Amino acid sequence: MDEAFSAHSAIDEARPVRHSGGGPWLLAAFVLAALVVAPIAALVWIAFNPAENIWPHLFATVLGTYLSSTLLLMTGVGVSVVLIGTGTAWLVVSCRFPGRRVFEWALLLPLAVPAYVIAYTYTDLLEFAGPLQTGLRAIFGWETKRDYWFPDIRTMGGAIAMISLVLYPYVYAMARAAFLEQSVCVLEVSRTLGSTAWRAFFTVALPLARPAIVVGLTLALMETLNDFGTVDYFAVRTLTRGVFDTWFFMGNPGGAAQIALVMLVFVVGLIWIERSSRARQRFHHTSSHVRALPGYQLTGAKRAGAVLACALPILLGFVVPASVLGYYAFEYFEQSWTADFLHYAENSLKLSLISAVATVAAAVLLGYAVRLNPGRGVRFASRLASVGYAIPGAVLAIGILIPAGALDNAIDAFSREQFGFPTGLLLSGTTTALVFAYMVRFMAISFGAVEAGLGKVTPNMDLAARALGHGPLATLRKVHLPLIRGSLLTAIVLVFVDTMKELPATLVLRPFNFQTLATYVYQYASDELLEQCALAALAIVAAGILPVIVLSRAISASRPGHRRSA
Amino acid sequence: MAQLKKLLFGLIGASMLAPAANAAEEVNVYSYRQEFLVKPLFDAFTKETGIKVNVVFSDKGLIERVQAEGDNSPADLIFTVDIGKLNDAVDAGVTQPVTSPTLEKNIPANFRHPDGLWYGMTTRARIIYASKDRVKPGEITSYEDLADPKWKGRLCTRSGKHVYNVALIASMIAHHGKDEAEAWLSKVKDNLARKPQGNDRAQVKAIKEGECDIAVGNHYYYGKMLHDEKQKPWADSVYLVFPNQENRGTHVNISGVSMTKSAPNKANALKLMEFLSGAGQTLYAEQNFEYPVNPTVEWLPEVKSWGEFKSDTLSLAEVAELRKEAIMMVDRVGYND
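The joint structure predicted for all components is written out below.
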């Protein structure tokens, strides 16, 4: 896999492929990118029209706190997800220890747990009134909070832990795929030259996997930045807090949009720093020697350590929250089970499936257009189309409302004038608008995966196919799509799971009387009544499990020489 | 593959269906209140009138949605839980004045906009919850008392920026002026037992567990907790103090309704508003243990048993005006840090 926003190495090589016939692709890509970027453009436009200058007040009061907590949160989550994700990925790919084949897919499970749900379940378990502390007090005879010390979950540390536990799978998925792809030769050469296993990892495997790890890290950080539910619940004041205060309490959308754009600068800055630090490096395999990796047989303490290292994230990120939900679902079954429940589940599944396919199709169009016409313009447009992921969902939703409403009203006005009948709102308040919102939001995920997949296909393939008389479309269909189906499936599954969990945009943009599992859960969760809707929350998690297992198998299968051996 | 394609196209086709076309009699509501709270009211209304009520619930962005949808917006009514949101809707220019003898008869003047741009439907009191074990009756009687240093490390509240606290702080500014209110807020902050977090219920829970002795919260949570098996012990550990009975009265907020400027089903929307201000009052108030705005409607006996009280008659429009100042004050004293 290559990096989401800078697959320049692959593209440089693809450059000689430039053919006639890419024009329509380029046009289509620009139109698509313009559509996806429109909501962000709307936010920029709002930012230029603030009700008043918000910055003097922010500078004088809370900006310092917001900035430092945002940086701390992102650093904490960044370090944690890289350590957990890369460490476990390397263990399951390169070592042999009991349970490895289960860990391979189970490590992806926490991805299915929405961050606000994990935050809620842990708070219930660990807070002063929760079962753990109550039990400790009963055992040791403590009475009040002053009698003993217990770590507070509703803190920065708690927020970092919760967010990291559900986001590390992005890094894990990407790193594992990268490790699996690595030619066994480079590792063997390094071992032959006298490297220890550790040195081979740090000097060979890790640098080769770096672009992939960065893709995962970028996704995790963007998601951290757009999170509001968890940080709000944990009373951690990040810039997102500032966006919401300014918009919804101070009635200053312009000021809020300015803060949201400052947050984007954070992400773009990070990506830029990473890119420039390896500007002249190239990551290509010179050998296609891909037989199964040998695997270090672990024994004794190392074996136990490996099992523990893999089991812990699954236990904390999935088993514990799912068990708490399961317990509530059982206890409150009567309140949880409604006749409409299956209907909500159906809505969620349909929306997620359609959005996943549509988003990935759009990403293929963008990615392939870049491959056919690797100019600066289209590359820039395609990257710009990916920034929606870093904007808080509710803010992005409002960014979508504006162009959608403008388009609807323009069509209506035109139709009234030309044909004398009103069309009303064709897009606003429909599920189509929701699918569009998910596409804007999750383009980063699918485009990253597609671009990386295409980057692996050697340009000689394009040349051969085109020399044999195929047009660009036929080449894509017969050559590229089959070759990158692993990446496509990864992207479809990630967008599917994310759409199942998506809340803020769904809330604001949905049609009348329309519930998904996530919106149904939220109306209770927002009143701290998660018990009453635990069944639905559990269903969101369960619906994520199957795709996650499919994803794991697809990644394994993506490596031709990889055989599933224990 | 062909089957998969068929399935996908089928699904996409199904998703393209426009929202319920203007069928028979209906009225469309954008609600900042949770759906499970308003649904029973709408069901009762539909039963009585045959008019269908369509709802979108979201706790953010609905006013912006009406604005973006413009003249073609399908929304007839906006339901909110705080005076601030009603004010936002008016400021955004998406509401229209409604005049109705029924509404004016049912709803006292201080609970509706002078031009009929919004109407309050229920009121809720911002009260003080006090520990039965650790706070003697009469030990705290007013919002001003919250600043008394004797409560140091004994007070819990939710975020200072939550709309309910913002409205309370705004009312303090209205009564005492900016400087005095800021000094008060700063002292209240010094009394906090922990960083503001959780909702109002969570503060009462903290009293039960001994983390703090007094808390600020809306009155209806008391009823909600009493009727939840798990939360009943929390409610049982506290008693309610309706502050400032010797002077201006307890601060109250409202939940209310605005009609949108573009309302396509104006007549039905008005019917729903009138229903809620009259026959629907009891049900509306019962749903959440709130107080009916209509003075002729009896309080729920259970709610009555918690105490009758004098409420602050300060105009809510003034509270809404001071909201921004209140938020900035929260930032200045670092209330949430």
